[in-house]
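2024-03-11 09:14:02 DEBUG pipeline.ingest accepted 1 chain
2024-03-11 09:14:02 DEBUG pipeline.ingest length=242
2024-03-11 09:14:03 DEBUG pipeline.predict start
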Amino acid sequence: MPAPRLSRPPGERVHLPLMLALTFSTGIVDAVGYLGLDKVFAGNMTGNVVILGMAAAGADDLPLLGPSIALVGFLCGALAGGRVVRSVAGGQWSRRIGAVFALVGLILAALAAALFVIGRAPVAPSLLIIVAFLSVAMGLQAATARHLAVKDITTVVVTSLITGLAADAAVSGTKQPWPRRVLALALLTAGALVGALTLRWHPGLGLALAAGLTIAVATVGTLAWSARAEAAGPGRPEPSSN
């Protein structure tokens, strides 16, 4: 029976692969954003800040408006996500967590559909509207993943992960979670590769794939949480996911 299988792993073992899947999805989204939506990162805000700095210095062919909208959209999404999940215990899944990830998936699906309708090369204002909603979705995802607190896996940021990987390796005897760190880096890279490849056909294809993955994460996570809660029985606390 599926429910007992879902109830066996503790929360951490369930959440880790789900957040790794979202890391792969983020790679797809950022590749589509940068290569297909006028050099805009929807998930990697560090990239947008660097682009804005270079564009402000007069660097050729670098946009100002798109990355600015992405920054504001991501901030709004992260703010909304933080407020929605703040009542959930840190490190725990809940219906709210699943609902936010499902909402992210639905936004990505709607944007994919919009791109299929608009065509391969959207122009302003359609382009900027897509950038705004895409960055809001990534902000929602990032805030919710942060609240879920799977160690080293934020789904959108890898600089701190690379720093930890290198710094811990330099300290003799330091134990570190090599598999998850290497997997996160590999999956983000693989996601970017897949996202870039989908642009050969249509930019909406990459967002559709990311939408499917995100909705799958929301579904599996919520089913696993429900199974654990049912296995714990009424009146007993949900198993810890830390």
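2024-03-11 09:14:41 DEBUG pipeline.report DSSP finds nine helices and no strands in the chain.
2024-03-11 09:14:41 DEBUG pipeline.predict end
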